[in-house]
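[09:14] KT: can someone run the structure on this one? pasting the chain below
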Amino acid sequence: MSTTILIVDDEAQNRKLLEALLRPEGYLTVSVDNGEEAMAAVARNPPDLVLLDAMMPGMDGYQVAKQLKESQATSGIPVIIMRAQDDHRSRLAGFEAGAEDLLTKPIDQAELWLRVRNLLRFRQAAEQRLHRLAHFDALTGLPNRTLFYETLRNALAVASDKGWNVAVLFVDLDHFKKVNDTLGRAMGSELLGQFGNRLIGCVRIRDIVGRLGGDEFAVILMMEESQRGASTVAAKIRDALRAPFDVNGHEIIVTASIGIALSPADTSDPDVLIQYADTAMHRAKQAGRDTFRFFTTEMNTEMLARLDLETALRWAVAKNEFVLYYQPKVDLDSGRIAGLEALLRWQRPGHGLVSPADFIPVLEETGLIVTVGSWVIATVCEQIGRWMRSPTGPLQVSVNVSGRQLVDGDLGADVVAGIESNGIPAGLLELELTETSLMANTKRTIATLQRLKAFGVQISVDDFGTGYSSLAYLRRFPIDKLKIDIAFIRDITRNPDDAVIARTIIRMAHSLRLEVIAEGVETAAQLTYLRRHHCDQIQGYYFSRPLPLADLQVMLDEGKCLPAPPGADGVPRKTLLLVDDDAEVLGLLQGVLQQDGYDILTALSGAEGLEVLAGNEVQVVICDQRMPTMNGSEFLDRVKDLHPDTLRIILSGYADFESIVDAINRGAVYRFYKKPWEGNVIREDVRDAFRHHGRLHEISSEDGR
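[09:31] RB: done, structure tokens below
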């Protein structure tokens, strides 16, 4: 499909010139001669890019750009403003209006091509990144649950037409929790990545391997004739696991339990087929693990247990057995509680407090979530009203909204009734929707959310990055906030990929005038990293776990808040990090450099150094090259990705210059010294590094202005 560029200029010869300049690049052009026609043209058929003349009678280019950027539907369209003069005032006016780039007349063809091409490539790359987030698992690169289900539906349709059989293998690692508990989540994640690769090696090209979440994987097998191929692949998977996994020097042996369901023999419904395979997998677990089982009718005993749970939930609705817990959301500028998330809990008689993971999926599948969701909204609005009329004062509270509430219920009526009956401002209620629920019955969803937005209710997207992440839907829906999924926060201080994804989401959201909340924040290092990269709010166990109302009220009355970040007193600090696995060397370096008044931090390994960097604003880091597990150049590579503003210096007493030169060429190293160093020389060069950092920071600040 050709790229369309809208040209807006009141001079006919300018429009013709731009059309002629763009034609050799294969762009389609649409030309109008005033701002009003430009807005009408965009409304009829949104272009991929707009070229705007700054000075036009009536609505000028700056006004057109401003209107485009203020509209949710058109804010993502790149705009280039063309000016007659390249002066400071017109540059400021262009960027204040929201233009992504500026050109000065007369237009140079090469410059025009380059700027248009770069803007279009940036937009396409952003779409592609978000598309990958939506459909592929970030850890293994395999299709995620969403894409796997879509692929299974397509596979069943093809198999039905051709008379083939389809097998779904539900694969779950045995005792995987022990790996996480004993070796840590990082090692567990590495193991999952390697396991995904082995699974791929067990199937044919036309078969599909996906990761459904945690340590659960699934395989789709297309079988033209015999169903024996499913057991053959299951046995092949078991054999592939016989060889130990090498995870960062640790040999790990794992086994897997596999459940198999067949279509059309068992069912042709994709959801039921996966459910049957899951049931068969649990039977394989019960049989002693490290085996596989086909789904059989005898397994319906498990279905009976499920029916018992459904019955208990229906009674829970009638007997008001549900309660709400509240988890604070904290503003990172003030450190104060900015709002709360209401979380559903079930106090089941004879069982105690039931985990939401055990009952909320059943509420969703049975449709009971519509009734329970209405109760949650009414209860939250009532509580907001109580707080408003008490010394606590107004508090914004968010509630989770299911896709079924949008499709099967009357969410708008529930919200309006709750707000009006309790006399609370609409802005104190926030609705959290997952990306998947937003995409259910899209037209109705958009209409409902737009009405609620006009009423004053806040809308946020929960678990962003795990579903249909798309710039297109961010423009279509009336969204106020994005919540970064915990999957990208958990290793944000150690995993450059997670860090880049989180930073990209923050920048993208802010460019769309959306607030960003990071959920699942559990450490001071995660908090500091997010604060440094301008995340607006955090939520997680680091500040508070979800609390019953009485415990929450105590916290609110005490005025709990986050401690002020380092440097909040306005006094600039020069912070230096020293990393060496030799404590004696660290002591010598510290002794030499502390004479210059630096705040000096130390770490005995690269991993420890990353944690220190995440929790502190460090301008300069010095590390040794020869360290176990993670050497100096590897460490500085990660520092470059995670903390690009930090200047990086490496020391070495060995002739491993090749890896150091490579690091320098990659831009990971600012300066290199060979041991032993001279005290006065290294002191002067560290002072120079801080001066260099200061100059770069000043330049960056000026560019930002």
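[09:33] KT: thanks! Residues 247 and 676 are 35 Å apart (CA to CA).
[09:34] RB: yep, looked fine to me
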